[in-house]
Amino acid sequence: MASAQAGAALAAHPSFVREKILLGMSVREYVRSCCTPANAIAAAILVVGVPILVYRFIAGLGATTALSQTAPWGLWIGFDMMTGIALAAGGFTIGATVQLFGLKAYHPIERPAILTAFLGYVMAVIGLLADLGRPWNIVMAIFNYGTASALFEVAWCVMCYTTVLLLEFTVPVFEWLGWKKLHSVMRKALIGLTVLSVMFSTMHQSALGSLFLLAPTKLHPLWYTPYIFVFFFISAIIAGISMVIVESMLSHRAFHAQVAGQHVDVDKLTLGLGKAGALVMFAYFFLKLQGVIDGHAWGYLATGYGAWFLVEIVGFVLVPALLYAYGSRNGNVKLVRAAAVMGVLSIILNRLNVSIVAFNWNQPVRYVPSASEVIVSITLVTIGVLAFRWIVNRMPILREDPSFAEGQH
Amino acid sequence: MRIGRRGFFKIAAVTAGAAGAASASAALPHAEGTDGPGVLVDTTLCVGCRACEAACAEKNALPAPPASDDVMRERRDTAPQVFTVVNRAEKDDGTVRFAKKQCMHCIAPGCASACPVRAMNKTAEGPVVYDASKCMGCRYCMIACPFDVPKYEYDSWKPRVRKCSFCADRQAKGLKPACTEVCPSGALTFGRRSELLELAKTRIYTNPGKYVSHVYGEHEAGGTSWLYITDVDLEKLALRTDVPERDIPSLVSGALGAPPFVMTLWPPLLMGLYAFSRRRDTVEGDAQENGKEDRHG
Ligand code: SF4
Ligand code: SF4
């Protein structure tokens, strides 16, 4: 049926490629329109980064990373996977807000949030494949059940959730292609998919924290707690909310044309999200303190690691929590956005701290990522941003497709 | 989009069913009792001849260890091509002590519990063995091992995790592990773990003041197949002494017990929320039907 429809669509619009892919321009016009400084930078990154990624598969991890026997996990796990997945939490957070809690006002930011989540997961999975020593054996996870492993849970949930995100993302894709029948089927499925997305996210966002439960002697006591999986889940919600705010700020700036003529009050949504952000972040702050008290780790606060820990929980949790609260209370959108930027940084910092900085803190030789690792991570982010832009420019993500508008909720 | 009451229950049932089907119970790798094979290392008897290193290398087709004993001036660790190393330490009175490091073959091994694909596995006989053909190279086993034993072949495009296998193949044929067979000084005793534990305690009690009164491996990480008795701080002999007494898998099992609950409780709960918010919507919608002109519905 799909292919028949595609054929029909092609027949109906002889200039399918031109209209849908080239944004209504001829090939030459299109290519010329791509010659922008931002694209030049992106191209430069890809020209360096992609060959490094390829080289990693030929020459092995040793040639491209700074990983060692005492640092088996580095930037690709700590940033690309841990952080990428946390930052993609906007997908299930906003999905649940709109679809399940019925806060329809947030509908306009649901699609960008889901798209970001989807791309985030795809990039995280690519990062993971680069990091796995034997990526071809990833299929083994389907046949061998290491059910005592938190990583097993992460692997399965990430697989399932990426599929769910893909399915959720088909709604705008079908609108773009004009496939009405499939579109209405998927729209109906959206509620079920949202339930699944909350379920899988709850499990793997927290399981990412559970990964560290088995290393009490390796993770610094200020970060190790038996409740680390709760921390990971709550901070993922913070990451989701903060990312959605940052992203709607950026995309409404970057994609003027897309949002022109729409009456979406982004500022109001931002303030609402800010209120939620403040709540969750305060809760997170007090839980983190509780973790320290519980682990009897006070003594470590006077050390260098303690100072760094305070930077994390005061500078990047308490301060943005206050900013969120103050900003959303006084209707100060700028403040809420500043808090959101800090919220995003806060999660990046936390994930890097847990998986790299405070991990194996007592080993004589510390891990510092190699240039190749950094470049590959930047490359993956760049690919994600490019894909986001490519899709937003073509599909009804930030705007609505008028011919489908009646189908909105 | 409208979903009637019936439709809503249908969706709830389907999602819950799908979730239930995907659910897998978090089973722990069973520790086959505590009486598998074991080795008792008596560091007071070890003469540091490194015959065990040589025998291990030969048995596992690894490069021969360096001939000169000078290598013991530095603290060494196992490596992808080195499954066991002997380290040297001096006591306060100047006597020299040695200890061999290798995989401890934990009774409830962290490495095997961490492996998502069961490439690292505790055999029913006791040894913890590795199967490269299943391994996806996540290196979580290295994170999980509290003794820092598994090592990785970072320089290969087809890397393996490497570690001592307790000569599982030799044991299956009724032979002793290669290292214990060549040890000339009696520092390594191979046998049943329960008997070795008794032997270790007897040595400690019948020689008052000689040993530190602790059998390393009796409780470390929930108990290991390899046991050590010593008269110096084992930390000096390059063995990790900060290993918790709880077995590693039990640190995780609590958190891993959650998924079945999440999978059975979340869907109905969320669908309930959804039904609630729809009802509220309808009520609100009826109230302000006329006030709303833009698309809704
Ligand atoms: S010592 Fe480490 S590698 Fe050996 S069985 Fe125990 S956890 Fe596994
Ligand atoms: S590296 Fe291999 S053996 Fe170790 S946990 Fe991962 S899949 Fe298992």
Description:
The complex is a heterodimer of chains A (409) and B (297). With 409 residues, chain A is mainly alpha-helical. Chain A folds into 2 domains: 35 residues, no CATH class; 363 residues, Formate dehydrogenase/DMSO reductase fold (Up-down Bundle). Helices cover 73% and strands 0% of the residues of chain A. In chain A, helix 6 packs parallel to helix 17. The mean pLDDT of chain A is 88. Chain B is of the alpha+beta class. Chain B has a single domain, classed as Alpha-Beta Plaits. Chain B is built from 9 helices and 9 strands. In chain B, strands 8-1-9 form a 3-stranded mixed sheet, covered by helices on one side. The longest helix of chain B has 30 residues. Chain B is elongated, with a radius of gyration of 28 Å. At the A-B interface, helix 4, helix 5, helix 7, helix 10 and helix 11 of A face helix 1, helix 3, helix 4, strand 6 and helix 8 of B. Bound molecules: iron/sulfur cluster (2 copies). One iron/sulfur cluster binds next to helix 4 of chain B. One iron/sulfur cluster (SF4) binds next to helix 4 of chain B.
SSE pattern of chain B, N- to C-terminal: HEHEEHEEHEEHHEHEHH
Tell me the number of strands of chain A: 0
**Helix percent band of chain A:** over 70%
Low-confidence blocks of residues of chain A: none
Largest sheet of chain B: 3 strands, mixed
Q: What distance lies between the first and last C-alpha atoms of chain A, to the nearest angstrom?
A: 25 Å
Keywords:
heterodimer, A: 409 residues, mainly alpha, Formate dehydrogenase/DMSO reductase fold, B: alpha+beta, Alpha-Beta Plaits, 3-stranded mixed β-sheet, two-stranded antiparallel ribbon, 9 helices, 12% strand, elongated, disordered C terminus, binds iron/sulfur cluster
Task: Please provide a brief summary of the model.
The complex is a heterodimer of chains A (409) and B (297). Chain A is an all-alpha fold and 409 residues long. Chain A is built from 17 helices and no strands.
